[in-house]
Amino acid sequence: MLQVCLNGARTRTESAHLPITPRELAAAAREAVEAGAQDIHLHPKDDDGADTLEPAYVDAAVAAVRAAVPDIPIGVTTGAWTSPDARRRAALVRSWTVLPDHASVNWHEDGATTVADALLERGVGIEAGIYSGTPAARRFLAWPRRDRVLRVLAEVTDTDPHTAPAVAVSLLDELGSAGLPILLHGEEAAAWAVLRTAVARGLDTRIGLEDVLRLPDGAPATGNAALIRAARAMIEASAHSSEDTKPER
Q: Rounded to whole angstroms, what are the CA distances from 98 to 57, 58, 105, 239?
């Protein structure tokens, strides 16, 4: 599965193509799906362009994107930067009226299980965000309800493309006992190197302006669809390579 991460916690100062409003998110989602995205992750923004879990903004963003791509699962963030108090974040989750299909919960953040429990109550799938270089994997594996999450979102925080693949492998080893679907991805300069690692291992992965602003050749991305097309090309090339190396019978 290839997920598009439309915007993240970035602002328009980082990319003129970053979708912010519900209308922009809907248009970007439609273009990304046409390019080959199969799942969507987005950060609802308030009127100042900051990430928020406030129901008016979450409801509007999810509703707009769902109308644009009605058959595609949609997820949102619940990151602690939206509201430092986990109990407040959980209360906001419980106040949503237009529910996303899933939401990411970062397990290195305090109160992750509080937010996760609120999502389970609402019937919203959980992407368990496990950052490399943090105690997130250990915390998540100790959670008694870990088997109820939708998938593990394995996030490689090392941005060096030369070392990030090895960090990815170590993170996957840490998560080996979870027995859950894993979506592996990187960020910034290492995003494409980690995506290649995910593809080589047959794992779900993601790409989008949240994770990287440049194409594999270093050119600035003109939008999420361009990043998805580049990822699709890598996935297809890997599939063809695998077919070519199969022994003849």
A: 10, 8, 18, 38
Exposure string over 6-31, b if 16+ CB within 10 A, otherwise e: bbbebeeeebebbbbebebbbbbbbb
Q: Which residues pair with 45 in a beta bridge?
A: 51
**What is the tens place of the pLDDT at every residue in 187-205?**
999 999 999 999 999 999 9
Q: Considering only CA atoms, which of 131, 128, 101 is closest in space to residue 116?
A: 128
Q: Is the pTM of this model over 0.90?
A: yes
Name the phi and psi angles at 93, rounded to 5. Answer: -55, -45
For residues 134 and 104, give the distance between their C-alpha atoms in angstroms, rounded to a whole number. Answer: 16
Candidates 102, 92, 118; CA nearest to 40 is 102
Task: Please report the DSSP string for 89-139 in residue order.
Answer: HHHHHHH-SS--SEEEEETTSTTHHHHHHHHHHHT-EEEEEEETTSTHHHH
- Helix (H) or strand (E) segment spanning residue 234: helix 224-244
Burial 123-148 (b: 16+ CB within 10 A, else e): ebbbbbbbbbebebbebbbeeeebee
* Residue 239 C-alpha from the chain's centroid: 23
For residue 160, the tally of other CB atoms under 10 A from its CB is: 14
In whole angstroms, how far apart are CA 56 and each of 22, 97, 175?
11, 9, 36
Contacts of 173 (CB under 8 A, 6+ apart): none
55-68 helix and 86-95 helix, angle to the nearest 10 degrees? 50
Residues in the chain where the model's pLDDT stays below 70:
241-249
